UniProtKB/TrEMBL annotation:
Protein source organism: Mycetophagus quadripustulatus
Protein name, UniProt field: ATP synthase subunit a
Statement: the UniProt record of this protein carries the keyword Membrane: yes
SUPFAM superfamilies: F1F0 ATP synthase subunit A
Lineage summary: Eukaryota, Metazoa, Ecdysozoa, Arthropoda, Hexapoda
Keywords: ATP synthesis, CF(0), Hydrogen ion transport, Ion transport, Membrane, Mitochondrion, Transmembrane, Transmembrane helix, Transport
Quaternary structure and partners: F-type ATPases have 2 components, CF(1) - the catalytic core - and CF(0) - the membrane proton channel. CF(1) has five subunits: alpha(3), beta(3), gamma(1), delta(1), epsilon(1). CF(0) has three main subunits: a, b and c.
Length: 223
């Protein structure tokens, strides 16, 4: 039972190779759709989403450098796609693994820290003590702010993976009870599963947006 419960999170395939990670790059097959002669409605919706995200991220970053929002829009896109594709049957959800989410969060955080402490050292020191802090509390605030800064990539990664795992486990647990139910309860279970699927779809969008927005806010602190 326990093995079947977590089998959807196993990256190994039948050949005992971790080939399920290839689902991460399946989005490349969809990207060329924007170059079709007759663009689809989905393409217009996606362009609208990217435009909205660009304007929001640009305001959060507070810089006029062209292309500064590209990395965060790309981050949102890859997480959103992997979250959504994991809702389909028999498709591996790579974002449910810390190996994937931490690989996205840690390099970004390290880049921000190296850039900030190298180019804006005084500004980074000023962030360790919030404005209006009493002098007696300053040493404690420095420790608290330092710890909160260090755990940022971990919280980003764990938040994303935990939300993906929780929803998938709940749907798996409910699905495993199906063979033991009568027809009336089975209809209720199917309806509940559909509601959970809608909830997981919303969580997929929200978590990818939260990850991208928080990464944008962290980058704005080092400017």
């Amino acid at each position: 039972m326990m093995m079947n419960l977590f089998s959807s999170f196993d990256p190994s395939s039948n050949l005992n190779l971790s080939l399920n990670w290839t689902s991460t790059i399946l989005g490349i097959l969809i990207i060329p759709s924007m170059f079709w002669i007759i663009p689809s409605r989905l393409n217009f919706i996606w362009i609208k989403i990217i435009s909205t995200l660009h304007n929001e991220f640009k305001n959060l970053i507070g810089t006029k450098i062209k292309g500064s929002t590209l990395i965060f829009i790309s981050l949102f896109s890859i997480i959103l796609f992997n979250n959504f594709i994991g809702l389909f049957p028999y498709i591996f959800t790579s974002t449910s693994h810390l190996a994937m989410s931490l690989s996205l969060a840690l390099p970004l955080w390290l880049t921000f820290m190296i850039y900030g402490w190298t180019n804006n050292t005084i500004h980074m020191f000023a962030h360790l003590v919030p404005q209006g802090t009493p002098p007696i509390l300053m040493p404690f605030m420095v420790i608290i702010e330092t710890i909160s800064n260090i755990i940022r990539p971990g919280t980003l990664a764990v938040r994303l993976s935990a939300n993906m795992i929780a929803g998938h486990l709940l749907m798996t647990l409910l699905g495993n009870t199906g063979p033991m139910l009568n027809m009336y309860l089975l209809n209720i279970l199917i309806f509940t599963q559909l509601l959970l699927l809608l909830l997981e779809s919303a969580v997929s969008i929200i978590q990818s947006y939260v990850f991208a927005v928080l990464s944008t806010l962290y980058s704005s602190e080092v400017n």
